[in-house]
Write a structure and sequence with these properties.
alpha/beta, TIM Barrel, 9 helices, 16% strand, globular, PLC-like_Pdiesterase_TIM-brl, Phosphatidylinositol-specific phospholipase C X domain-containing protein, phosphoric diester hydrolase activity
Length: 317
Amino acid sequence: MSAIIYIYTHTHTHTSLNIFFSFFTCRVAIFTCECKKHVSASEALSSKYVSHKWIKKIENDRLLSAISIPGTHQSNRYLKTSKPMFQAWGLHNQLDAGVRFFDLHVSSDSIKYVKTGSVQESETLNYFLKTMWTFLVKQKKEILLLRVTPDEGAVAQVTKLLSRDNWPVWRDKVIPTLGQVRGKIVLIQSSTLELGLPVHITELNADMDTKETQMRENIKKASQKCEQEMMLTYTVANGESEPLKIAKTLNKQVDNYLLNLKGDKNRPHCVGIIAMDFPGPKVIQTIINFNGKLGEGTQIVGEFKFTDVEREVMFAQ
């Protein structure tokens, strides 16, 4: 549900409250806040949140590890038949929103479409590869990262499929520059698949009381190493039965932490890959913006810059 928030700031100082507000730049802003945009709870993606060419704006000689990348966890678990669901958006909307890292867990049935009723076509690895390739044909300067974790019985089939020459896939173990992999799918190694780039992974444990502290420590660790190695931070509900409920809290905490980190005088240059459940446009854009000003076509339409106090007003739930 949309909420209209009016923010008034001025320079008059007739009362102590006005004195407080005098520190702000004079402005009257009417901001339409779709207040749950730290999470994507709906299948739809508004056109004003499309951000499908942001990597294009980053220089070619930057190492892939040294940029900040929004990602999704269990990226193909978005159908209502998936229990539990980890995403609301299908792959097309994830791509259009600016997500560039995808995490797939596949069984032998989901490698190739099998009409058994238990596996849908849009959950298959083939579908994901074809959809990614189609996206890259249109957005030739973009880069997609893919981490596939096949079940034990599917390793050989997945390896064969991803080794085909007809896919624009980067399988090397050396971190490339952006210029080397534009228009390609870059494979990231998993526990059961060694094709692609090795990656350092941090995850949250099941203790809800410490998840925010863990998340901050993990992102900080990633920021210290991302210029030399691939870093992947999962900020997801490990061991939890309600991923959406957890994401509503965690995604907002990730967003707030990154905004504070970005404003620090000792801010890091990158935070690596951050993979989330149900990420919304707000947190995706915050991660993208960590790469600096990227120009037209990369930012949410109508984005305002607010002070910390105003931001607290906007996102108070």
